[in-house]
Write a structure and sequence with these properties.
heterodimer, A: 400 residues, Peroxisomal Thiolase, Chain A, domain 1, 2 domains, 9-stranded mixed beta sheet, two-stranded antiparallel sheet, globular, B: 473 residues, alpha+beta, 21 strands
């Protein structure tokens, strides 16, 4: 048994993405209308052309009505789904499969999150009623568990590691500074990042992604139909999603320096897409940098760096905008912001812009011009030891 | 008749230096008092004392009933002893009773245990609070003691005799729900207690057939410290026989106090010594006992940290007065801008009782993998419903990684959390307590302790946390 994938069978022909940030003047419905309209316009279609919708939101609405009501859809199927922070990617994956199956000609994947109405500054997640035995730790705390484990395993001094994490945040802020849709649009000096108030473990406020509102959407059609809508469709090469058995939190063999779920999803997606050497083949990657140690570990889990070396590569600038493999050229969750259900589609939006040569000049990556045609998105939900992970590979050309 | 075959105590980690109260409020005080942490109450401290008691109990003694004594119950209407019963993983056939309200209940529980027809575990636990700046705040203390009574011994103490005197008078009183006691004029209490004490002691000595000169150790306790002092002097025993009542170091622990002071004495007494124990509490109860040879053998089996002196030595005395007031609910601090913790729900707590209270893991019968919490499907080999339960509350563990969470809600931020790997298998991510965040490191050894995680909507969320192995840090 292996996942066969749907390589080159579907393509993205239109995308929309709202600015992310504190949209005090917009509700989830407004954000959905904004991103859907932009995506329809981008593909040159109307809402009536779309046969089915997949709406991802963690908590900004329940049921398909969350989308059909504001868009006034004409009795269309809308699936509302949730898969923690990978919700947006999961909407995309399911929409792609609907098109690939032939059940529909055109589907929309759309994600939204309205976080800033909660009244709290961080992420607020409600849990089903339980026995109260699970420690109620904050998200920064759960991801900060990676840092001491990585330090210990690879003999990286904690101060050195803090510097590495700081540089990752600095890089993402630098990228976000030239992205008009990003929540944070200014460079932040490393000294400011390093000295920011501690949230949990080694993580300061600048090691955490932005809590924001936003929405993003994609229009998906069969690959053979794609050129009816655009000259530059983005083909889906591989889609992988795994929900782990939550083994890491109960199994002492897990060492908190990796996400097994990411390793498994990446293997699957690379195999579907025919990627053998991601560092050499990918033009760019959008990864789930919810907290700086996450991005560090992802470099290794996604095969961009050998085990135990990602910290050196990060310091060497390998993943900078002008580096060998740009990671999060749009600023990532760190600077672009993280409206949960929208993030996976926001990552695809950057691939869409870069692979089509439509990114603004100040953040255009050189790898596309140099001939690389593949981009990766990675989305993660949960926390180290118990998470879900999504990896996609998309490309600007169908395979020969 | 039952005899005492084991005992255990619990003195919380924190001490409040009475000088700290003086600095804030201009009062005068010296020494320290024991302080239950923000995540402790009389139920959790009772569990800790009872665990120590049962860990040292002779093999084969099966607890037939549990009695819990406190003046500060976590719940009314609902029995508190059942939470202790569950945390100790006792046989459901053994009943559990609360005897709450006054220090005198401790005397009643001991008498009841002595004459009960089954092995009986008696747990005394108290948390003493007064108004800021008052005598009870500075002089009170928190702690617990547990004694196991069984018919067949080996007895740590030989019972020689006892005497009682009872009277109705207004000395110390508190309306249910109030957070502090009220007291009548101090000299009146001395007047009322002195003749009651004389009568009880005379009766006890007569029953035991010993004179004051034969008393090797005299323990006098009670919440009326002036009466205790005066009565102790008038007993006619030698000055060296008067046992230090520990109030200078841990404060007066109310219903637990006589038990803790007795335990401290038994921690060091020689076999064949005669002890007079007098408790002044709405009357007087005097008991005369003699230590046995078995006491020395029993002590040899116990870790040093289990002694009262060991726990006093393993304490931390730099508690701020402001934190003490916050923990006691007497200083309402601005909470972090985060949602309140969610309370556990009753059905899930009952379904998961063996996990939540008894701290059971399940071990796969097919491949031996341990699961915390107990699982039905093995994470390693996939076997379904082939699991055996194991209690891990007494199993030490090692820190695999850790963090200090400054964002999550806590009455005493920051929360220290760790992923801990248990000896023999099994991993759990939990809060740590009684720990200095600066000392936490991968590889540190921890042990489990029963705590109150939070109280929301009137529901106490009890569960286990890890703490550094006491006596090793």
């Amino acid at each position: 048994m292996a996942s066969k994938g749907i390589r080159d069978r579907v393509a993205i022909v239109g995308m929309g993405c709202t600015p992310f940030g504190e949209h005090w003047d917009k509700g989830a419905e407004d954000l959905l209308v904004d991103s859907a309209t932009a995506a329809f316009d981008s593909a040159g279609v109307s809402k009536d052309d779309v046969d089915a919708f997949w709406l991802g939101t963690m908590g900004s609405g329940i049921s398909g009505l969350t989308l059909s009501r504001p868009l006034k859809l004409d009795y269309k199927p809308v699936t509302r789904l949730e898969n923690m922070c990978a919700t947006g990617s999961e909407a995309f994956r399911n929409a792609c499969y609907a098109v690939a199956s032939g059940a529909v000609d055109m589907a929309m994947a759309i994600g939204v999150e309205k976080l800033k109405d909660s009244g709290f500054s961080g992420l607020v997640v409600s849990r089903p009623p339980d026995d109260g035995s699970a420690a109620e730790l904050s998200a920064p705390a759960l991801f900060s568990l990676l840092a001491p484990a990585y330090s210990k395993k690879y003999g990286v001094d904690q101060d050195e590691l803090k510097h590495v994490l700081t540089r990752i945040a600095w890089k993402n802020h630098k990228n976000g500074a030239v992205n008009p849709r990003a929540q944070f649009r200014r460079e932040v000096p490393m000294e400011t990042i390093a000295a920011s108030p501690i949230m949990a473990g080694q993580l300061g406020i600048f090691d955490c992604s932005g809590v924001s509102d936003g929405s993003a959407a994609a229009v998906i059609v069969r690959a053979e139909d794609a050129h009816r809508y655009t000259d530059k469709p983005i083909y889906v090469k591989g889609l992988s999603f795994v929900a782990g058995p939550a083994a890491g939190v109960i199994d002492p063999d897990y060492d908190y320096t990796t996400f097994t779920e990411v390793v498994r999803a990446a293997e699957d997606a690379y195999q579907q897409a025919g990627v053998e050497d991601p560092r050499a083949q990918l033009a760019m990657a959008e990864v789930h940098d919810c907290f700086t140690p996450t991005e560090l570990v992802l470099y290794e889990d996604l095969g961009f760096a050998e085990r135990g070396t990602a910290w050196k590569e990060a310091l060497a600038g390998t993943f900078d905008l002008d580096g060998e493999l740009p990671v999060n050229p749009d600023g990532g969750l760190k600077a672009f912001g993280h409206p949960i259900g929208a993030s996976g589609l926001r990552m695809l939006f950057e691939c869409w812009l870069q692979l089509r040569g439509e990114a603004p000049p100040e953040r255009t990556i050189a790898s596309v011009a140099a001939g690389r045609k593949l981009a990766l998105t990675h989305n993660l939900g949960g926390s180290p030891g118990e998470c879900v992970s999504f990896v996609s590979v998309v490309g600007s050309e169908p395979s020969a | 008749m039952n005899v005492i075959v084991s005992y255990g105590t619990y003195i919380p980690y924190w001490r409040l230096d009475r000088g700290r109260i003086g600095e804030a409020l201009g009062t005068f005080g010296s020494g320290t008092r024991a302080v239950a942490s923000y995540d402790e109450d009389t139920t959790t401290m009772g569990v800790e004392a009872a665990r120590a008691c049962l860990a040292a109990a002779p093999e084969g003694v099966k607890v037939g009933q549990l009695l819990f004594v406190t003046t500060d119950p976590a719940y009314l209407d609902k029995t508190n002893a059942t939470a202790i019963h569950a945390a100790l993983d006792l046989d459901p056939a053994a009943p559990a009773f609360d005897m709450v309200g006054s220090v005198n209940s401790a005397n009643g529980a001991m008498a009841f245990a002595t004459f009960a027809p089954m092995p009986t575990l008696v747990v005394f636990s108290d948390l003493r609070t007064g108004l800021p700046g008052g005598v009870d705040e500075a002089g009170g203390g928190d702690g617990a003691a547990a004694f196991l009574y069984a018919p067949d011994g080996p007895a740590l103490l030989e019972f020689l005799g006892w005497g009682a005197s009872t009277d109705e008078f207004l000395d110390r009183y508190r309306q249910p729900g109030e957070d502090h006691s009220r007291l009548w004029e101090e000299r009146f209490g001395e007047h009322a207690y002195t003749p009651l004490a004389e009568q009880a002691v005379a009766e006890a000595l007569k029953a035991a057939g010993v004179g004051p000169a034969e008393i090797d150790h005299a323990i006098v306790t009670g919440l009326h410290s002036r009466a205790v002092r005066v009565v102790a002097k008038s007993l006619g025993v030698g000055k060296e026989a008067l046992v230090d009542d520990l109030t200078g170091v841990i404060g007066n622990t109310g219903a637990a106090h006589s038990g803790i002071v007795l335990a401290d004495l038994l921690d060091r007494a020689e076999p064949g010594e005669v002890i007079l124990r007098l408790v002044l509490a709405d009357g007087a109860i005097a008991t005369v006992v003699r230590t046995t040879e078995a006491l020395r053998e029993w002590r040899a089996r116990r870790p040093a940290i289990a002694s009262v002196a060991g726990q006093i030595a393993a304490s931390r005395a730099d508690l701020d007065y402001s934190r003490f007031l916050t923990w006691r609910g007497q200083l309402h601090r601005e909470p972090p801008r985060r949602p309140d913790p969610t309370p556990p729900v009753a059905p899930a707590s009952l379904r998961k009782e063996k996990w939540k209270f008894a701290f059971h893991a399940s071990r796969c019968d097919e491949c031996g993998t341990r699961h915390m919490p107990p699982a039905r499907v093995c994470v390693k080999c996939g076997a379904v419903d082939k699991m055996s339960h194991e209690r891990l509350a007494e199993t030490p563990a090692t820190i695999a990684t850790y963090t200090v969470d400054r964002l999550a809600f806590s009455l005493s931020p920051p929360i220290v959390a760790a992923v801990v790997d248990f000896d023999g298998g099994g991993r759990f991510r939990c809060e740590m307590t009684d720990v200095d965040p600066k000392t936490v490191a991968i590889g540190n050894r921890v042990e489990m302790t029963f705590r109150r995680i939070s109280t929301v909507d009137g529901i106490h969320n009890y569960f286990w946390k890890a703490r550094p192995v006491r006596g090793e840090s």
